[in-house]
Amino acid sequence: MRNGTLVITDSSITAVYAAGEEPDNIDILSENQTSPEVIDVTDKIITPGFIDTHRHGWQTVYRTLGSNVSLWEYLGRYSLYSSEGRFTPDVVYISQLAGLYEALNAGVTTILDHTHHTWSNETSKAGLRASIDSGARVVWAYAFQDLQNYTIDEQISNFKDIANEAIFNGTPTTLGIAYDAFYSDKADLIVPLTREYNISALTTHFMAGPWDSGNDPELLDRLDLLNTSVSVVISHGSYVSVKQYELLRRTNQYISITPESEMHYGHLHPTSHLALEQASLGVDAHFTFSTDILTQARMWLQRVRAIFYATPSDAWQISINNPMSVKQAFYLATRSGGLALRRPDLGIIAPGAEADLVVWDGTSPALLGWVDPVAAIILHGSVADIEHVLVDGRFVKRNHTLTTPNYQAVKKRFLKSARIQDVMINTPLPISKQGEKSTFGAPLEYAPVADVERGNGTGYGPNWLGL
Ligand SMILES: *[C@@H]1O[C@H](CO)[C@@H](O)[C@H](O)[C@H]1NC(C)=O
Ligand SMILES: *[C@@H]1O[C@H](CO)[C@@H](O)[C@H](O)[C@H]1NC(C)=O
Ligand SMILES: *[C@@H]1O[C@H](CO)[C@@H](O)[C@H](O)[C@H]1NC(C)=O
Ligand SMILES: *[C@@H]1O[C@H](CO)[C@@H](O)[C@H](O)[C@H]1NC(C)=O
Ligand SMILES: *[C@@H]1O[C@H](CO)[C@@H](O)[C@H](O)[C@H]1NC(C)=O
Ligand SMILES: *[C@@H]1O[C@H](CO)[C@@H](O)[C@H](O)[C@H]1NC(C)=O
Ligand SMILES: *[C@@H]1O[C@H](CO)[C@@H](O)[C@H](O)[C@H]1NC(C)=O
Ligand SMILES: *[C@@H]1O[C@H](CO)[C@@H](O)[C@H](O)[C@H]1NC(C)=O
Ligand SMILES: *[C@@H]1O[C@H](CO)[C@@H](O)[C@H](O)[C@H]1NC(C)=O
Ligand SMILES: [Zn+2]
Fold first, then answer.
1. For position 421, what pLDDT does the model report?
2. What is the per-residue pLDDT across 118-150, written as a single tens digit (0 to 9) for each?
3. Measuring CA to CA, how many Å separate 203 from each of 52, 96, 399?
4. pLDDT of amino acid 13
5. Any residues with Cβ below 6 Å from ligand 1, and which?
6. What residues in the chain have per-residue pLDDT under 50?
7. Which ligand 9 atom sits nearest the alpha carbon of residue 466?
8. What per-residue confidence (pLDDT) applies to 430?
C-alpha cells in the first residue's frame, strides 16, 4: 500500500487506510487524548517489527569472542555450563539489556529468549528485569538446567516465585519455559509446569544428524507437549525428518531456523528448506554475528535459492524460474514468527494487530528508487535505514536514536562488565582428539580449512597444490 495512513491507539493498530481513503478526522483516540499525534511518513516504508524466535540475550558481553569457533568449541568455552559461576547478577542484567537495545535498534521487536542465564535466583531475576526494562516484547523462557550449584528443585521454586510475582503485568514481556533435557528423569518435574502455568511458549534445542541432541518432536509428542494450545518452538531442527515435520504440521508447531548460527557453528540445516510451512527465523548466539533478523532472512533466502537451484543444475540443466520470492523471506521474518508463538496479532499490519512497527527511510542511499517495498527491505535495506521502531505502540527508537534516556550510562556499565572477556579468552578450548567419541555420540573429526593466503606455512589451511 502506498501513501496510506495507519492509526495506532494505545498499544494496537486500530485502522489502516489506503491513499485518499483516510477520514478528515481520526476519532479513535487513546485515553486522555484530544487530538491524534500525527507522524509524517512521506517517503518512508512501514513494516511490522521483526520476530526472532531463538536467542540467548545474556551472552552480549562475549561479543566477537566466537568469531572462529565451532559448536564443539563453543560448548567448551561459551556455553551456559562454562559460564556458570562467572556472571554476577549485575553482568547478566547489563549484558541482556545491551543485547536487547541492539535488537530494538535493528527493528527486532519480539524475541523468544531461551534464557539459560538462570544460574541462581538472582541471575534469573536480573535477566528478567533487563528484558522488561528494555521495552522489547520478550517471551522470557525460563531455562531449567542441570547445574553444579543450583538444583532443579531450587530452579522450580524460583520459577514459581517469578510466575506468581506478576512483575510482567502491564509490560509486553511474558513468561515461557525453556528445557533441553526432555529425555532425562527430571523431565517429569518440568512437563507439569508447562500446563500449570500460563506460559506463552515452550522452547527446546533439537538437532538430529550427527548431533542427536535429544528433544526430538516424537519425544515431545509422547510427553503430550505438542498437541496443545501452548506454542512449542523447536530451535534449529537441524536434519528434521519427514516424520518429524509431519508431526509439527499436524500439531501446528514450529522450528526456529537460525541460518547464520547453523552455518557458522556447523549444526547445519540440510532439510529445513523443506519444512518452511512450520518455520520461523532466529538469531541464536548473537555475540558471534548479526543480531538483526533482516540479515537472517536475506542469508536464508539466498541459501534456499542455492539449494533448490542445484536440483536442475546438478543434472546439467538451467533453471527457468527463481525458487524463492522475497515475499516468502519477508513472511518468515515477520508473520511466521508470530504464528510460531501463536500470536497472529504479531508480525502483521492490520487493525487489531499489536503496534510493533519499523519505519524505514525510503530515500536512504540504499533504498532510493524502490518500487517493491518488500524487495527494498529484504535485499537492499540495513539497520542504518531504520528511522523509528515502535513496540506496543511506544517509540523505542525515534529518528535513528534509541529513546531510552540512559543509553550512554548503559554503554559505560556494559563496557565495564565486558571485562569478563579476558577470563573467557584465557579459558582453554576443549582438548579434542580426532576419532574420539563426542558427548553427542558421533566421533570428532577435523573439517577442511580455507586459506586465502598464497604459499606454504601461512598458518591456517593447507596448500592444496603444493606450490
Ligand atoms: C503517493 O504520493 C506521491 C506524492 O504525493 C505521489 O506522487 C504518488 O502518485 C502517490 N502514489 C500513490 C500510489 O498514491
Ligand atoms: C489519563 O488520566 C488519568 C487522570 O490523570 C490518569 O490516571 C491515567 O493514567 C491517564 N491515562 C493514560 C493512558 O495516560
Ligand atoms: C581466529 O583464528 C585466527 C587464526 O587461527 C586467530 O589468529 C584469531 O585469534 C582467532 N580469533 C579469535 C577471536 O579466536
Ligand atoms: C560451586 O560451589 C563451589 C563451592 O562454593 C565452588 O567451589 C564452585 O566453584 C562452584 N561452581 C560454580 C560453577 O560456580
Ligand atoms: C531462591 O528462591 C526460592 C524461592 O523463593 C527460595 O525458597 C530459596 O531459599 C532461594 N534460594 C536462595 C539461595 O536464596
Ligand atoms: C495468560 O497470559 C497472557 C499474557 O501472556 C494474558 O494475556 C492472559 O490474560 C493470561 N491468562 C490467564 C488466565 O492468566
Ligand atoms: C490432537 O488432539 C485432537 C483432540 O484434542 C485430536 O483430534 C487430534 O487427532 C490430535 N492430533 C494429533 C496430531 O495428535
Ligand atoms: C525527527 O526529527 C525531525 C527534525 O528534528 C522532526 O521534525 C521530526 O518530527 C522527528 N520525527 C519524529 C517521529 O520524532
Ligand atoms: C610445505 O610445508 C610442509 C611442512 O610444513 C613441507 O613438508 C612441504 O615440503 C612444503 N611444501 C613446499 C612446496 O614448500
Ligand atoms: Zn541456542
1. 87
2. 999 999 999 999 999 999 999 999 999 999 999
3. 13, 19, 35
4. 97
5. 2-3, 19
6. none
7. 13
8. 81
Contacts of 63-68 spanning 24+ positions with Cβ under 8 A: 63/287, 63/418, 63/421, 64/287, 64/288, 65/287, 65/288, 65/421, 65/424, 65/425, 66/264, 66/285, 66/287, 66/288, 67/288
Q: Distance between CA 7 and CA 28 in Å, rounded?
A: 8
Q: The C-alpha cell of 323 is what? A: 525458487
SS3 of 195-225: the string is HHCCCCEEEEEEECCCCCCCCCHHHHHHCCC
Where residue 147 falls (left for φ over 0; alpha for ψ -120 to 50; beta otherwise) is beta
pLDDT value at position 166? 82
**Cβ of 458 below 6 Å from ligand 3:** no
**Cβ density class 29-56: b for 16+ within 10 Å, e for less:** eeeeeeeeeeeebeebbbbbbbbbbbbb
CB atoms within 10 A of CB 62: 23
The residue nearest atom 1 of ligand 7, judged by CA position, is 227
